[in-house]
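Work package 3, deliverable 3.1, input record:
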Amino acid sequence: MRFVAYSFWFLVFLSGQCLGQKSALFGREWAFAQYLTEREAHAEAVHMLDQLGPLTRTPAQHDSLNYLRGWVAYTTKELTVAHQKLLSVSATSPFYTRSRYFGAYCLAFVGNRDSARVVMQTLPAPDSTLHELRALQLAGAALLQRRFDEYAEQRTQFRYTSYAMANEQRRFDRYDSTLRAEKRRSPLVAGVLSAVVPGLGKAYAGKPKQGLAAFLPILSMAALTYEGLRKDGPRSARFIGFGSLFTLFYVGNIWGSVLSVKVRRNEFKREYDNKILFDMHIPVRSMLLN
Amino acid sequence: MTTRFCLICIFLCGVCCSINGQSTPADWLQQADSLAGAGRFFEAGIVYERTLFEQPDAPLQLAAIRGKIACLKQQGRFGAAVQYLNGEVTNAYPDSVLLALRYEQITCAYLAGQFENALSLLDRLPYLHPDGPTETTLTSLIRVLSLNELQRWPEAAVAYRQALSRAGADTTQTPYAKLPKLKSEKKGQVLSTFIPGGGQFYAGKPGEGLLSILVQSAGLYFGIHSFLAGYYISAWGVGAATFGSFHAGGIRRTEILIRQFNDKQIKTFNANVRATLVAIMGQ
């Protein structure tokens, strides 16, 4: 009986030893994956981290693995993987703060703006600097969604004194006023204008060169059609041929003017979204990577 | 009962020892070599890095670096190899090791298509290693080939002769006596401006030249005919517009054709020089 008890405790001891050694092994392998990341061997680091899965035992190890995998994905611009991994790091991890900020940014970048805003509201902000950084992120998210009232609320927390984000805060204010002042052009008005004077709708949409480029060929077609009518009459092949071409160009230009309002609007939106995302990114990098 | 207990103990001890028994850098290197031998270069590259991570002694470190470079080369990642070596050559290795690494760096730079970089690295060698053999068969070869790729023919001809004399080969006959005849883009443009289709003929594309002549003539004919018939707008809007568009397009097309022709000539010449040089140097 005593022999069995000794045996049991010996086996428990050995198993404990094994688990401890597995933990040490994980730490070593993780450090190696981090070393690969620092040497910009990203494909190799991902390969190593994928091999680490079965060795992961504790929540802390899971966090370390998710953080590093997310970080490599962020570095290689796989932002969907990056936000998935980074946002699964738990609050007990030493990488928590960095993971949340970068994960939220990645989420905003890939277009999940509502989810990004929800994550940003719970970003850790233990000191006044991070508190202001969180406000900047929330302000950026508000601008991305053109929620101007929410932006006004967040900007009350801007102090414009931090070297890492004062410029971005000022630029956000400029974006806010530009976006508020954006004129909403009407596709209908553009179409009507192009029906009256070919190309004018495109100029109204903010594309004057395209308007001129549309006007000249239509004018030429109109002149050719008129010549056909005047010289050969309404039943002539010349009049019918050039008239058909003129009609095609004329109607096509009206439709193009309607579309150009939407195209211009999207261009403007994309331009400002990129500026906002850029200015959200820089302070996160400069404050959390040093 | 006792036997079973002993077996379990042996198993657990074995598992623990295998986990705990950290491989030495030599073990990692051996594993990397066998992976590379099996053609698994990506995995081998990681294990070579692992060898370096375990901070081996100098000979193992050099073997691991060389192994890593070989793996990158085998994967065709020459640019990555140059970048990797950029970091390694700043380390405090013995002079002979640094020289060997710089040879690798030069080779990889050439293979990555970084010809200016390859030449710059070659020019730096005598200053960085004043006592070392900085001009070897390999470096001479890379110098000639890089100069060729950059179309620096006179310098390439000098380097070619030097390489041949180093190899003890005949230096009297070189391919540089007959350089590829390149066509002038400007001449092509002038021809296309004054003789429709002439530029395409000059660029060696008579079919395109004939087509260009045909379309431009049709536009011109239509324009003149319409004008004479009193259709002034048609003469301008269709005839002149067709002629003008195809005329301007013909000039632009000539530039592209001449560029393609010249590229082809250069590639053929470089390929011939490369084949000749490798054959001579390999003897």
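Residues 6-21 of chain B have pLDDT under 50 and may be disordered.
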